[in-house]
Amino acid sequence: MSWEEKRIGEVCILNYGKNLPKTKRQFGEYPVYSSAGLIDYHSKSLVDEEGIIIGRKGSVGTLYYSKKPFFPIDTSYYV
């Protein structure tokens, strides 16, 4: 088996997280991720399945994985 080098945008679509200020969060079961990783929990998810979170600001390129629905904020991308 051989490996083929590609840019991440060639194999998947990077989606932007959404703005969710701390003052708008309602504590719940869904993890909230930023470019720094898990930062809080919210009553609603933005993504209704497991996924990968990629740092977009600050910790650019850092990867996190959520095994359950989650809410990525606007400092991150998600797949």
UniProtKB/TrEMBL annotation:
Keyword Magnesium set for record: no
EC code: 3.1.21.-
InterPro entries: Restrct_endonuc_typeI_TRD, Restrct_endonuc_typeI_TRD_sf
Domain Type I restriction modification DNA specificity: 3-72
Record flagged with keyword Hydrolase: yes
Entry keywords, A to Z: DNA-binding, Endonuclease, Hydrolase, Nuclease, Restriction system
UniProt cross-references to SUPFAM superfamilies, sorted A to Z: DNA methylase specificity domain (SSF116734)
GO MF annotation terms: endonuclease activity; hydrolase activity
Family: Belongs to the type-I restriction system S methylase family.
Protein's UniProt name: Restriction endonuclease subunit S
Source organism of this protein record: Leeuwenhoekiella parthenopeia
